[in-house]
Design goal:
This protein has 102 residues and is an all-alpha fold. It has one domain: 434 Repressor (Amino-terminal Domain) (Orthogonal Bundle), CATH 1.10.260.40. It has helices at 3-14, 19-25, 33-42, 49-59, 71-82, 85-100. Helix 2 packs across helix 3. Pfam families: HTH_31 (PF13560).
C-alpha cells in the first residue's frame, strides 16, 4: 500500500464516505466510481493530478496531505488547511519562533 492509498482510505473512512460516493462527488463516472476508488486505495492505480485535486476538495484536505510519509506532518497540514487568514499567519509565526529559537 502506498502513502497515497493509505491516506486516501483513512480520510475517506474518517469522513464517512463510501468509495462510490467519494468517487462520484470527485467527478468520476458513477458506473466506475467504486471500482476506481478501490483501485486507488489498494495502490493498483494512481489517479491523475486533476482527480487528486477533486478528491482533496471533496474531503476538504490539501493535496499535499496525501503524499506526506510522516503522520505528524500530514496532521499539521490537515489542521493548517482548515485555518483562515490571520490564524494561518499566527501559526506560521509560532512555528518559526519554535523552529529557529536559539
Amino acid at each position: 500500500m502506498t502513502t497515497f492509498s493509505r491516506r486516501l482510505r483513512e480520510a475517506r473512512k474518517s469522513r464517512g464516505f463510501s468509495q462510490e460516493r467519494l468517487g462520484i462527488e470527485a467527478g468520476i463516472e458513477p458506473a466506475t466510481a467504486s471500482a476506481r476508488m478501490s483501485q486507488y486505495e489498494k495502490g493498483v492505480h494512481h489517479p491523475g493530478e486533476s482527480i487528486v485535486k477533486q478528491i482533496a476538495a471533496v474531503l476538504n484536505l490539501p493535496v499535499s496531505y496525501f503524499y506526506c510519509e510522516d503522520d505528524d506532518t500530514a496532521h499539521l497540514l490537515q489542521c493548517f488547511h482548515l485555518l483562515k487568514g490571520k490564524d494561518r499567519k499566527d501559526v506560521i509565526d509560532l512555528v518559526e519562533r519554535l523552529a529557529f529559537q536559539n
